[in-house]
Amino acid sequence: MVIENLSMFSKEKLDLNFLLFGGKGGCGKTTSACAASIYLAHKFPDKKILIVSSDPAHSVGDSFNCQVGSSITPVNDFPNLWALELSAEEENVRFKQENDAVMKKIAERGTLFDNEDIDMFFDLTIPGLDEIMTVVKLADILKEGKYDLIVLDTAPIGHTIRLLDLPVHMKKWVEVLELMQSKHRFLFRAFTGKYRRDDADDFLEKFDNDVKRVNRLLKNQRSTRFVAVTIPEVMPVEKTEELLKELKKLEIPVRDIIVNQIRNSENNCPYCAPVEEEQKKQIDYISQNFSGYNLHYIPSFPYPICGIERLTEYSQLLFGEKSYQPVLSAKAFPKPDNISISVNKPEAVSRFLEKKALIYIFGGKGGVGKSTMSCSAALTLAKRNPNKKILLFSTDPAHSISNCFNLPVETDKYGPVGGIDNLFAMEMDALKLLNEWKEENRDRIKETFDEFMGGGGTTIRFEEEIFEGLIDITPPGFDEIMALRKITDYISENRFDIYVLDSAATGHLLRFLEMPAIARSWTKAMLKMFIKYKKMIKMSKQAADYVDLSRKIRKIQEILTDPDRCQFGVIGIAERMGKNEMDRLVERLKKLKIACGHILINLVLAPIKCDFCEPKRYKQQKLIQEIIREKSSEHQICQIPAFSHPIKGIDQLIDFSRIVYG
Amino acid sequence: MPYTKTRLSDFSDIKSARVPMFTEIIPAPSSRVGMVSGVVPHISSHPPISFARHMKLLPSRDLGRTGLPKGSRRVSITEMGLFKFVGKLLTGPVQPLVMFKELAEKIERQAQEESEILVSLEDELMELKILYELEEINAEEYLARKKELTEKINEEKMRLEEIEMKIVERKIIKGKEKE
Question: What is the pLDDT of residues A84-94, one digit of tens each?
Fold first, then answer.
């Protein structure tokens, strides 16, 4: 196969201000973003470049092989390149320190709440903080004007779409804050005859301008470019198509697609040959269906692309400086002799499903095979427990269950899947659930206001509009709370005996696992309000609903932290960046008190005589040994073999589960 | 739970708005729910003070001789006033119906009051549940108080059912009498 590369950007001048890299997890977004930033920093030494990671599970530092933190850090050897791994928590603290007083002032002026109530709500963690703080930080960086180019390494698809859509929603937030301030302006004018601007007006104007600036930049066809990254495999290509459709809707300019990890060994390896065969089909499909885009083909490397040297090599291929040469021969690498792994017992994986848990969760980095593992686990559980009902569900905004089964899966409610009587699946449309909740609450707020004012009594126009506006500006992570609520409903109604969660990639999975605590704190705040204002509002249906929600959330918190009822399987791959992310996930799970008994290392290569596979296997086995050394005392380490064909469709999933789970 | 009878002014027509009269504001049915409070004058067709009462020859009509609120005791002819007494005499032939109407109204009033007690108890139970969710009371206290309140609620419900039954019975009797 001839791989011909296109030059990515104009070589003479850099007229871009914003470059985003996005795609399905595990396709090489971070590697591409880092490689592009070092290439451009080298090519345009007079331009200042900043690479920002918005994925809560950062890996920019791992990719550069240097320490990058939550403050802007210079990247080794490059005087004009800086990196930032955005910490939503830290940014939130900073934002609050700067704007807390003025925001509270607006809330106090615009709502019926007193200082105590406002302080309580301002102290709560907002769901979807990562996306909000990315927009806020980007606005600050843009306003500062210190950097000529910002390269954004985004989170996997679902959450990136949410991030890119956020500035539009944030405009609504400004409108509601503006409405709150208008009430103050009206009253001030009514009593004093004229109105004098104050810091609240300045804040609103600044915030509005910041949001507009980010929105304008995102949609600027001349200075912004979104680069989609994919690999020539069925599921990533399908997900890329979905991503491109969404980006078109959001009017975000996309011209380039990087087709990464192309196998080109041209040997008779029993593993490589079928993979290459499948890749060829997908490359044909890509060239036919994505012909309107600049396609950049990047080969698969038998080693991880980490550190400046390897990133430079990658960037030269990406920018067409170098044509692809099959130089990646095994000769340069030692043979994987003297390495023997003793833990590769299939019964170890099988044992993962033997514990009679209520919930099984599979989590890990993007592209490690979470969906495949969870779908096959659900199939195995359905087969082993014919008298039990199993629900396989996904809360990731970019669902993969239907892609994995190659069958349509219900979004509004659960439905049977694959013709198996006791297996049900659901790809939760969390946004739809959220909208339903909003409508329900809109009616309730109206009811409460009517009740409060004595049925057709006093109309406090501002308050009613503000409350309705507040419902519309629900933060971006709130949809996940709705998904959580749905599952807690099912659990409390005992609709299913076993639940299997196909989660989002690490960063957002952790956010989801933290969600019950966040949701509980919000529910508690609402309940405190009911107690405080019990003389004014009837403690009827709303209070009962919040008590019910609080109970259910408490129950799910108990389940998640109970090792007998919740089984968490961390899925990893034997690659340096994958291992780093896996380590961080295991650490965070420990902090969240979620028991994780099993580490499942996926895509482990078999010992094959192949110039490409042998060095890769050598690296893999070295890392697996490291994982065993570090983790086997607390976790059961299991290896899952790499398959030469994509696992898609019910038949292949059944075969896969037979091999993996026994 | 409505507590105003009138429409208060909007912000927009704040200047032109008519200030609501106190008499139009009905006090909240439960003391726990009242937000707007005002003097509710006692309005009666009979003069509040007669010469005999002014001279302290008769007790005040508000409390009567017994000192009990007016609704709880029977009003004697001497306390009734001339017009009401004549009225009663004139309506003598249809007294059973009038009596029945008064009784039915009394029962309905009582049912209303009872249902307010029920609402108040249910609110108390909800408050208890909230306090437990907020971890302000422990499980032991919660269960004990919950049991107590649930019992009270059930008692009230039973009493309400009895009253409802009485109303239904009266209505049936009334229907028969009309026939």
Answer: 998 888 888 88
DSSP state of A601: E
Residues within 8 A of B (CB atoms), A 424-483 only: 451, 453-462
User: Residue B25: pLDDT above 50?
Assistant: no
Q: What is the pLDDT of residue B21?
A: 40
Enumerate the residues of chain A whose CB falls inside 8 A of the CB of residue B130.
527, 530-531, 539, 543, 546-547
Q: Kindly provide the ipTM of the predicted complex, given to two decimals.
A: 0.71
Of residues A29 and A506, more confidently modeled: A29
Alpha-carbon gap, residue A315 to A321, rounded angstroms: 8
Give the number of domains in chain B. 2
Nearest to A662 by CA among A374, A344, A349, A341: A349
pTM for the model stands at 0.72
Confidence of residue A22 (pLDDT cuts 50, 70, 90): very high
DSSP string, A555-600: HHHHHHT-TTTEEEEEEEESSHHHHHHHHHHHHHHHHTT----EEE
- Whether residue A586 contacts residue A633, with contact meaning beta carbons closer than 8 Å, is answered with no
Q: CB of B142 within 8 Å of any CB in chain A?
A: no
Measured in angstroms, the CA of A553 and the nearest CA of chain B are apart by: 11
Round the average pLDDT of chain B to a whole number and report it. Answer: 65
Give the pLDDT band of residue A282 (cuts 50, 70, 90): very high
- Domain region containing B108: 93-178
CA B73, B75, B78, B80: dihedral to nearest 10 degrees?
A: 150
**Would you say residue B126 has pLDDT above 60?**
yes
Judge whether B12 is closer than 8 Å to chain A, CB to CB: yes
For chain A, the average pLDDT equals 83
Q: So what's the pLDDT on residue A334? A: 45
**Amino acid letter, residue A91:** E
Domains (ranges, CATH) in chain A? Answer: 18-91+137-171+199-320 (3.40.50.300), 346-432+480-525+544-661 (3.40.50.300)
Separation of alpha carbons A18 and A1, rounded Å: 33
* Measured distance CA(B132)–CA(B142) in Å, rounded: 6
A25: Cβ contacts below 8 Å, ≥ 6 apart: A156, A365, A366, A367, A368, A505
The answer to whether position B166 is within a domain reads: yes
The answer to whether B39 faces chain A, any CB pair under 8 Å, is no
Residue of A nearest to B125 (CA): A539
Burial label, B74 (beta-carbon count in 10 A; 0-12, 13-18, 19+): exposed
Residue at B10 is within a domain: no
Cβ atoms of A22 and A153 within 8 Å: the answer is: no
- In this prediction, residue B61 has a pLDDT band, given cuts at 50, 70 and 90, of low
